[in-house]
Amino acid sequence: MLRYLACLSSYPVAAGLAVGIFLIDTLTSLHFAVASLYVIVVLIAAHDRRRRAIVIAGVICALLTVVSYVLMHGLEEDGAAPLRFAVSLVSILIATILVLRNVSANLRVEAVERERANLARFFSPKIIDQLVDIYTPFSFARRQSAAVLFADMIGFTAYSSGKPPDLIIGLLRDVLQLLSEAVFSNDGSVDKYLGDGLMAFFGPPLTSGRDATNAALCALEIVNAIECWNDRRTRCNEDPVRIAVGIHYGDVVQGDVGSERRLELTLVGDTVNIASRVEAYCRILDAPLLVTGEFRDALLAEGSLDLAKAFVDEGPHMLRGCKEPIRLFSMKREPKSQVTMDLRDIPEKIRELDQRRV
After folding, report:
1. Which pLDDT tens digit goes with each residue over 1-32?
2. Checking phi first, is residue 148 left (phi over 0); if not, alpha (psi -120 to 50) or beta?
3. What interhelical angle do 38-45 and 10-27 show, nearest 10?
4. CA-angle at 333, arms to 327 and 334, nearest 5°
5. pLDDT tens digit string along 292-316?
């Protein structure tokens, strides 16, 4: 009944109920037996969860209780009336404090849920759980090591030429979903979506002892997922999708960039630029996956020997915008003993994409 009344309109209902309690308390011989019902007024006022309204309701109820006592008994003691009067005031005070604390707790929970939903767009669930537990802000500028991964669809412009918009957007959603799931399943974070690709990083804001390993496993999962997806597309007489993945490891700067109206937590630095150049160089070497020598050294430092040995040396190459040649390595075979992801789950992800498109 209380919930039904509150849903109608909390403030008029609360005001009407307060007036009714005051009249009954003042004009009848119950003598403060109903004064504690002012607690219901406070509860109804809390329906909109506005703390100021709750405080005002509590103060008004207390004043009505005082006015009723003065009208009925004046300033003299009259039997048990002062005791009932005090009990009513204490009840109103306690109810107001408890309601305020409850509303504040609910608002904090909602704020955390909004924060989690916002972080879920960029971070894996494991990282989100750790970030939510951090009470100090992590978005201030910092420098630390990270594995930066760029993944991009090859030939998207030619593919989209002449295609209906809904078909193009549907393809982009499917590709980006596969890429995002690979990043999140390997404890990575999405820095930004780049139209037909994305930039991801492994490490910041919470580094671990296997950031490079996670990046390599993510790249393998991307390549395998696209291959499985292409098998399904070929059987449906659809054009296959080619993907290029480039990874570099080094120091990055993380911080907020943008304006006051729109801020974005991102990575900047030479490591990011080189990773982007490496991904673009996949087209020249006709390789779906290229990594740098620094990234391979990071794999060795983390003890991922099988993963590191699975990369074949392509020699030094002069990348656009780089002053010195960068040694590149391509993945020629799948390191079975080191890959910890379950590739049997990939066809299931492809089926989910197909069902969603239908």
Report:
1. 444 444 445 667 666 666 666 666 665 555 54
2. beta
3. 170
4. 115
5. 999 999 999 999 998 998 899 999 9
